[in-house]
Amino acid sequence: MYEIAKINLDNELDLPFIQKRAVAIARYLGLSGSTQTTFATAVTEACRAVLDKTYNSILRFSIVKAEARWVLSAEIVTDAKFTENSEELKYAKRLIPVLEVERQQPDNFLLKLKLSIPRSIRVSIAIISRLAEHIAAMNTESPYEEIKRRNQELFELTAHQEEQLRLSMLLNEKKSEFLSIASHELRSPLTIIKAYAQIGRTFAEKDPYKMADYLDKINIQAGKVNTLIQQLLDFAKIENNKLEYQFEKSEVTGFIEEVVEAAKLSHPSHTFTLNFDKQADTRFDKLRLEQALTNLISNAVKYSPKGTNVTVSTLNRNHEAVNISVADQGIGLSKENLTKVFDKFYRVDDRNQKVSGLGMGLYITSRIIQGHGGEIWVDSIENEGSTFSFSLPMKA
């Protein structure tokens, strides 16, 4: 027996597909038009009778050689009970010369519809093989399967559109929240600056030292405003792929020492420790990398108690890259925050410790590191601290 095609009988919608397959097989063999129609109709009606009882059946088309004659056969394996005299098979039996029913163990039945191929038609194993390839190359989907596939595609498209809508709504919410936070963060230092300026006017002549103190406070708040504005500008450049870099070869540890010395002046409430591996020379943008490292140090200070230590370390990786880490002894991050901490506009929601910021510092930092060809990551334990690390590739 040489199998040509196999079809699962899942639904009545498979019947037109079965008829087309039967006609295609008979046509390829060179049977007459009336024989093509008769054979296809008989097979279709037998399948209809089976589908009326069960959806657990298989149809196979094959060619067998019996007593020096080639026979085109359609066999249906089903768990529905039939006999050769079953009323449901009478119409098919009128159309086909041979319709046999065999009981198979344990509970299956085999329906065989056989049509002898005229001796005038040349049949060989090679022709049968080409016929099987021809049928396989045709569209293998039944109408039912095609409907299922298209429904699945429609479902996936709808799900994708719903997800896009959800993400769009979430982004709009984040933008609204960001604008609210940005206006608050900008308004706060400006309000303080205005208040100190008004109070300072009364001490301009009476108490110059007091006036100097107010000017220092105004300078600090003005620095906050400048930082916020710079973040907004950098964010706009990143979103438009216009963040530029000026790479130059420099020594990494010396550069870090300069950044940490400046951090000590800005954050006298914390101590700092340097833990360097061997020296490393590579190419990087000093201004942008200082911005990234300063962001990480500022975050470490923000989220750790006064008097605790911030450790800045380096680790050389076989002349391929140098890892730079900033570790604090702060509140740490939850597993949820770990996965989102580098997202734009994301701010850690901690009710016990409110800190200022637009939720852009770590996002900008991550993009600067990516712009250097490096990677950034974080390790953290809640209530023990966090370590933010990034790699800086070695470039000649």
UniProtKB/TrEMBL annotation:
EC id: 2.7.13.3
GO molecular-function term, one example from the UniProt record: phosphorelay sensor kinase activity
Class of the enzyme per the UniProt entry, highest EC level: transferase
SUPFAM superfamilies: ATPase domain of HSP90 chaperone/DNA topoisomerase II/histidine kinase, Homodimeric domain of signal transducing histidine kinase
Catalytic activity: ATP + protein L-histidine = ADP + protein N-phospho-L-histidine
Keywords: Kinase, Phosphoprotein, Transferase, Two-component regulatory system
Occurrences of domain Histidine kinase (ranges): 181-396
A Pfam family the protein falls into: HATPase_c
UniProt keyword Lipid metabolism, yes or no: no
Protein name as it appears in the record: histidine kinase
Species this chain originates from: Mucilaginibacter straminoryzae
